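> example.struct
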C-alpha cells in the first residue's frame, strides 16, 4: 500500500508568456497479488504445470487539484480570466478519483497431470492445457468543463464557462445517452461577464470493462508447443458511454440540441480475435 501527498508550484510557458500554476495531488495505491500455496509463479515464468491460478488486483484513489492541467489541452487552453488564476483552481482535467483493475489467470483442471481427466492421448489434446484469463477494469468518469461563448471578449471562447444555477442538480436523476446533464442547471453568459461555474465541475459516465481470453497449448515435444489464443475485448458487449456534450454552442439563451447528450461510446463493440503461436 502506498499513500502520497504532493504539492508543487511550477512555471507554465504559454502563448502569453510565463504563468504560475499550483497542483495538489493525493494518491492511495493498493496492489494485491494472490498465488496458490506452493506455486512457483514468483520464481519463474508460468506454465501449465507450475501455475494453477494467479490473480492480481490494483486499486488507486487519486485526487488532483490544479489551476491548469495542460497548456494546449482542449479544456485548459487558457485561463478563463487571466487576472484571476485562483478562479481556475479546481479538479484537474486528467483526474480519476477511483480506478480498480483486476486480472486473473486460471489453468483448467483437465488433462494429463491434472485432477480430472488425467489421461494422455486424444483426451489430453482436447481437454488439457486450457487457461482462462480475465481482466476487469472499473473507474470513475472524466472531469468535464462547461463551455460558453466569448462574452468577455478575451479572444478565447473555449475558456469561458457557463453560469451554474444554484440548487439545481446538473445531472438528471436517471441519466442516459439522451440526457445526462440537465440544461436547466445552467444559463449562458452575457456581455461582458465570465461564467460562474467552477472549472471541471462535472463528471462523465463511469467506465466498466471486461476482457476475456482462452489459451490452449498443443504439445508437440517437451520443449515445443502450438498455442491457440481466443481473445475477447469488451466481452459482455455492453455499451460504455462516452462523455456528454458540455458546450452551449452559441450566444443564444437556449443551448444547442446536443447539450448534455452523449453521441459516442468510449469503447467499441465486442471484438474477438484468434491467434496461433508456435513456441520452441
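> example.seq
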Amino acid at each position: 500500500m502506498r499513500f502520497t501527498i504532493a504539492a508543487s508550484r511550477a512555471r507554465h510557458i504559454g502563448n502569453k508568456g510565463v504563468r504560475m500554476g499550483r497542483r495538489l495531488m493525493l494518491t492511495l495505491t493498493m496492489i494485491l497479488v494472490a498465488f496458490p500455496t506452493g506455486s512457483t509463479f514468483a520464481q519463474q515464468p508460468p506454465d501449465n504445470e507450475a501455475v494453477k491460478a494467479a490473480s492480481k488486483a490494483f486499486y488507486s484513489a487519486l485526487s488532483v487539484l490544479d489551476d491548469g492541467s495542460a497548456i494546449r489541452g482542449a479544456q485548459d487552453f487558457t485561463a478563463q480570466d487571466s487576472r484571476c488564476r485562483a478562479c481556475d483552481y479546481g479538479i484537474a482535467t486528467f483526474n480519476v478519483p477511483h480506478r480498480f483493475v483486476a486480472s486473473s489467470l486460471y489453468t483448467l483442471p483437465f488433462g494429463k497431470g491434472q485432477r480430472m481427466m488425467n489421461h494422455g492421448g486424444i483426451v489430453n489434446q482436447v481437454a488439457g492445457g486450457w487457461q482462462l484469463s480475465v481482466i476487469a477494469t472499473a473507474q470513475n468518469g472524466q472531469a468535464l468543463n462547461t463551455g460558453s461563448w466569448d462574452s468577455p471578449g478575451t479572444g478565447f471562447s473555449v475558456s469561458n464557462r457557463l453560469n451554474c444555477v444554484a440548487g439545481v442538480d446538473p445531472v438528471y436523476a436517471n441519466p442516459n445517452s439522451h440526457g445526462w446533464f440537465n440544461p436547466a442547471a445552467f444559463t449562458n453568459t452575457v456581455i461582458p461577464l465570465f461564467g460562474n461555474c467552477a472549472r471541471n465541475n462535472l463528471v462523465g459516465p463511469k467506465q466498466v470493462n471486461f476482457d476475456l481470453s482462452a489459451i490452449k497449448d498443443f504439445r508437440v515435444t517437451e520443449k515445443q508447443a502450438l498455442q491457440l489464443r481466443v481473445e475477447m475485448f469488451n466481452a459482455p458487449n455492453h455499451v460504455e458511454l462516452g462523455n456528454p456534450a458540455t458546450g452551449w454552442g452559441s450566444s443564444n439563451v437556449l443551448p444547442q440540441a446536443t447539450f448534455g447528450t452523449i453521441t459516442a461510446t468510449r469503447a467499441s463493440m465486442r471484438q474477438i480475435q484468434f491467434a496461433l503461436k508456435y513456441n520452441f
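> remarks
Residues 2-279 form one domain.
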